[in-house]
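Re: the 258-residue chain
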Amino acid sequence: MHILITNDDGVTSPGLFALAQEMRSLGKVTVLAPDHNWSTSGHVKTLSRPLRIKEVRLSDGSPAFATDGAPADCVAMAVMGFIEEKVDLVISGINPDANLAQDLTYSGTVTAAIEAAIWGVAGIAVSLDLPVGLAKPDFDTAARLARQVISQVMAHNPLPGLLLNINIPYLPAEQIKGVKITRQGKRIYRDELVKRIDPMGRPYYWIGGEPPTGLPEEGTDIGALAAGYVSITPLHLSMTAFQAMDKMKQWDWKLDLT
């Protein structure tokens, strides 16, 4: 199995390094990741300028590739031919913060996995629910758990384009209660618009506020994580609201074409 590892935090991220180390036991690993942080970038594909890729070394001396493109660019370039060997699985992470509920629309970590699914390749996003302000986080436990989960997923011969979002509690391994298959929950955002004035007297703005919380409902990614479980949320690319579509078909639509 040939595994592509990428992320949205940059090729030097300790979460990426821990993940790559663990995944080598499952198959051949190729790393192609951004050369800088793309957190909360969403699903970006770069079409307006050329992209450059350079060979770099991870902290253990193993080779990797870094690009000035976005996480989705990394996946697209890899499967389109920059990586000559066929990619069987894309794993994005480990992100140093949970990606839950509506976060998925913002997350570069998740959208890298989405890009894989678009190309018919299994894509898995892995995130760790780190406490805010932790100085030296440990990614090794999360990487080991991710490897165990992913090895079981792949043993079931998943269909091409499988898309999973995995969130792992930041707990010692012995305190992890197990795995739950979940749906997306509901985030509560506390964003605030902060207005400031620059030295020239011109206004500028920051989007600030407190970190988001969420409703820890049973069966959701937020609820499972809060209860100490690894959350696995299967995703799909269709955004069609079928219930709304069925209702709207019953409306008496009229157009004035005169």
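Residues 79 and 224 are 33 Å apart (CA to CA).
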